[in-house]
Amino acid sequence: MKPGKLLLQVRDLSKYYGNRVGCERVSFDLFPGEVLCIAGESGSGKSTLLQTLAFELRPNSGSVCYDLRGEGLTDLARLPDASLRELWRTDWGFVRQNPRDGLRMRVSAGANIGERLMAIGERHYGDIRLQAQDWLRTVEIDEARLDEAPTSFSGGMQQRLQIARNLVTRPRLVFMDEPTAGLDVSVQARFLDLLRRLTSELNLAVILVTHDLAVARLLAHRLIVMRQGRVVETGLTDQVLDDPHHPYTQLLVSSVLTA
Amino acid sequence: MPNLPTLGVRRLGKQFTLHTQGGARIPVLDEISFDVDHGECLVLDGPSGAGKSTLLRCLYANYLPTQGEIWVREAGSPGRIDIVLATPQQIVELRRTTISYVSQFLRVIPRVSALDIVAEPAQRLGCAAAEARDKAAALLARLNLPERLWQLPPATFSGGEQQRVNIARGFIAERPLMLLDEPTASLDAINRNMVVSLIREACARGAAIVGIFHDAEVRDAVATRRLPVQPGIAAALAA
Amino acid sequence: MNAPEPALQTGYNFAYLDEHTKRMIRRALLKAVAIPGYQVPFGSREMPLPYGWGTGGIQVTAALIGPDDVLKVIDQGADDTTNAVNIRSFFARVAGVATTTSTTDATLIQTRHRIPETPLAEGQILVFQVPIPEPLRWLEPRETETRTMHALREYGLMHVKLYEDIVRHGRIATTYDYPVIVNDHYLMRPSPIPKFDNPKLHRNPALMLFGAGREKRVYAVPPYTDVRSLDFDDHPFSVERWEEPCALCGSTETYLDEIILDDQGQRMFVCSDSEYCATRQEAGHKGEMAA
Question: A80 touching C, CB under 8 A?
């Protein structure tokens, strides 16, 4: 990863639920190809931050600017709904913790992958199908299952299908919320390895929420540690994990069981 | 412009504050300054607990120094970067192009074969996949890792086997600065000698090396210079 | 086959609905005409027949019909089915309007599931009965989301449904209520007409209005509006064809119903549009089973 042009710029981002803090005064920069992990325990505001970054939740204050294709760094707050939604389904991707939230469970794997292509106007059934087949192969799902609905897939396959469904439009930034939380450890390893390979092959920037520090160490270049909606520590992943400075990070790191 | 040494350390200090233990402060390194130029192998001397590994980790940006400067000459660039102040993006790039770090322990990547783990750093430097695998295979052969293990993920390997994978991974990319933390700790004599050869070859191609070696024989065989690291105050207090 | 219609019944406002309600529906219809294909909400009233029997269509008809109108009602192409007969006699009783089975003579035609074969003319109004107006409901249950999708023309999802059709059946198997794009913007369900009738929606000289009573929506395709059926480049839209002509009038151009004649599997194909078929027979066209 070469630090190139800024992809995402976050400044003083805050989201409140009434008086309660969702996330507060979060700032960071993200570059193309960078994998950034947001870690912290349940209720620390990780998922709120992720949704606010993606503008699925509107921030109460602060800004998120994204390097829109052809437009340059653009404040998302000034983006019309139509462009924001287009961004969501083309240059961005979303991998949800629960595959039911990220997949259409009633239609075939092929249609799940083809949806984004059809949304951007592809109208050739055969081509869409071929591309879907290619992506199934890329995420290590048997092509023979192209016409099966994801309800018949295992948890690991469903998460891999979510990846394929998103990557088909070659996004530059993917948001992931605890994508491995529902998976068995053995299945997790395969998913993480695939993710690791794809992010580096496609120069994909990822913002990944996880409570699992091992996942962060394996995938992320950088780590943000959150507590009670605020960033308590941030930096190179291995530096934060091996030489934590903030009391909370030290507690978090020392609480991890090592096998 | 005078040719600057590959690595320049100035007044480096590191102290840990343990918040989980009532904010105890543990000074480990203090006022350390040295240069290492290309072709040199600097061996850190000192008893265990003196902070040799901590120093090495600071040089890799794995630990953040409390004070001081660590100037590294970036591969393919005339300028130097102080990694104490560098951005995470700069450090990730430095680790790709400039700094190798070989520790005693292999951090296993699930499902990835030994051969691919070794080949990866070369590939990330732009080597074609097949070429990188050939180089990896050659290195693993030199380190006497049985060929039947090459296609397997090293999670189930013995300590010595994992360490040889780790060494191969550290040496495959010919980076200008190599940090070696007890790379021969659990190796037998033959493999130890092989590592000595690898280190000498790296020096010969112009790498600057900073190393910690438990084994006096290895130390003597590779050192072009030595740096005594004094036990920190904490260690003295603990004794 | 024309039974005399019942006489005008007193005690009801003209065409059953009160004038305020009619005005409300007309306002909704004006909006619908102004935004072709857009579903306009309206305050659907209780009607003296159950949902699913055409309450939406009846309210639209009631809001528009005048004493000089000539009304035709068809159900699946036929003028003499229970639904058609009852709705026609309903308006004869509460509005006293003239009724007809002739497509050409009618000024206002209420229909369930067909567009007449006789080409419509300027000035005529065709009122469709609609069970479910939202074409995206199949894949997106949230109303707030489907409204946004319409507003932003995000219709990729509809193609997901067609894609699934091809996956399961080897072709687009949707044969009725086949989705269309109206005036290059709104995605619309044309009500459960056979896709055979979809081309008739395109640039039709008549005003076409759609009423969904239970779902409380009206929408419109004004005269001469572009209406395009969705498809894939390699699976283009096409209409049904039959291998034999109508057994009664010999037509090869019309939508045919299959009629089973006995337990041995004897069957015949006849025009679904009974009035069109009868008119052709009167003009001397004969099919092989014509009397």
Answer: no
